[in-house]
Design brief:
Elements lengths: L2 H14 L1 H23 L4 H6 L1 H42 L4 H42 L11 H27 L3 H7 L11 H19 L4 H36 L1 H4 L2 H12 L1 H30 L1 H8 L4 E5 L6 H21 L4 E17 L2 E4 L8 E7 H7 L10 E6 L8 E4 L2 E7 L16 E6 L2 H13 L8 E9 L3 H15 L9 E4 H54 L4 H40 L6 H33 L1
Parallel strand pairs: 3-6, 4-8, 5-7
Antiparallel strand pairs: 1-9, 1-10, 2-3, 2-4, 2-9, 5-8, 6-7
Helix pairs in contact: 1-2, 1-5, 2-4, 2-5, 2-6, 2-18, 4-6, 4-7, 4-12, 5-6, 8-9, 8-19, 9-11, 9-12, 9-19, 11-19, 12-18, 12-19, 12-20, 13-18, 14-17, 18-20, 19-20
Length: 661
Amino acid sequence: MKISFISKMAWQNIKSNRKLYIPYMMAASTTVAMFIMMSALLTNKFVQERSAVLTSLFGMGTIVIGIFSLIFIFYTNSFLMKRRKKELGLYSILGLEKKHVNTILGMETIIAGSISIISGMIIGILFGKMSFLILNYVLSFPVEIEYSIGWNTFGLTIALFIGIFFLTMLFNITQVTFSNPIRLLKGGKEGEKEPKSSPILFVLGLLSLGAGYYISLTIADPMSALTQFFVAVLLVIIGTYLLFTAGSIIVLKLLKKNKKLYYKPGPFISISGMLYRMKQHAVGLANISILSVMVIIAVSTTITLFLGTEETLSTRFPAENKLTMSPPDMSGEELEQNAEVLYDRVEQYTEEQNLQIKDGVKYQSVNLFGNLKENVFNIREIRDADGTMLLLFPLEDFNQMSAEEYNLKEGEALIYNNGSSVDLDSFVIAEQEYNTIPLKKVPQILKSNTQIVDTIIAVLPTVQDIDEVLNYNNQQPDNTDTQWYADYHWNTTGSEAVKKDYATEINGITQADDLEVSGFYESRETSRQEWYSMNGGFLFLGIFLGGLFTIGALLITYFKQVSEGYDDRERIQIMQKVGLDKQTTRQATHSQIVWMFTLPILTAAIHTAFAYPIIHKLLMIFGIMQHKLLILCTVGVVVAFALIYWVIYRITSKVYLSIVE
């Protein structure tokens, strides 16, 4: 056969079967568009500049969309092939060899795949740009977020979908090669065999899901949440697929064994219908569940971040102004003397502007990293990310921050450990042993320091005691040198405009050339716009991703309903011919549809509930400490998505019923 003849025949087949091919290519194009829009965020300038965590999260999302694309295109391709089996069988009976049929099928896949990939990339570019323009206009953030696609994104998209369509082509060729023409002629009418239950897969699904839930529920701190989040997500995804494929069959077979329930017209039709096609139902339902969870989490977390910006600012800046000095190779007493020079200049300028300093707090501290073994704190190099942060304060400075007045004798230390409730009788640091007095709470200004990582706060009697610890650390060959920090937090009187001008001048004062030690100055007022811009950008991306995943859920739901409608139509019509009234069959099919729509949204809600602890820990990194806002946003998004899902249900169920009836 000449390639020109094969191409013409393949194109003619596509045109003749356009009622099947057009929806198939539309679905594939939309999947390509979803993937290219998701992968474009990996190289987005806003994402890369804000956080490496975001890049990792979008990388995980790209992988999930890639897996979804593979499953979904195979799903729609199987629907297409089932409708065409009779046609392919006729080709063989009319004299075409299987190799010729396979060649034509291969050419059809190349044509359909090429159209899908090219149109999908065009849709992805146009829809992505349009979405960003609309969101930038509606949300009116100070900084406009641009949508851009790099050549790497194009290359990744083309390579992935060429691979997927090549696999579908192999699958289609295998279907023809290993089937005889008579079976192909009857293939479209062959019923599904009752699937076999697999207790092993069911148990593995429970274990995988349980492990994912356990990680979320027992996560210790935000940094641990960051490292274990992807593991938990992967386990939950695996558990979801296994439970839908194996667990649903086990549950339906148990319902079938219940004779009182099963042998009634309604339950008989719905349970048997779901059971015999649960093999193809399961993957679709699992996909919808996972996409629904992604919608809920993406939108609820970014809304929480945006609405919680003021809380983030309060956590980041306990006072309106913050000045930090950290010169290397300087003792605590030397830093204190140099810091006072800068503090005096700040206070003098404040007085000249007829402003007053309120709630001023000055303190010095040393930050070390290591781990606590029994009562000994072993200082380690900071790159060991699974350890404990040790904050050392001299007693005099700690008393300035605290509402209570503490006294220490030589060889005593105040100890607070947020990672353990065990009271230590003694505490050893830098080979010096201290008798401990437990701290039940820490000053409010240090709250945020103790909530991100496992932290020990140790208050030693004098600055000299901490100098000894610092010298010990810096003499260790494997440890990173560290230094003293001097911090000054204060509020001032005046309007917002005055405070912004004040912050600009103070920033210049802290960087004066004649200072022995310069400072790093931050202001809540001047940082407010930057934080709203950043969190607004996160909200922007959350809405964009939520819309993307909702489209995915809509697509797979629609094709699931259409394919099931064609599979059920003849079976339902036969039941009506043998005497089953139309109302009973409608009720039974309606019951089946309700279950198929309820399961994914219920599963998504359960996954979200168990994911709450790890999500909250991740948001603590951004300064969201309270639970109330996240709970309200999550519940609101679940309700809103359930309403959208209900609309999808109403539309697609009508499509299903119109096909069946």
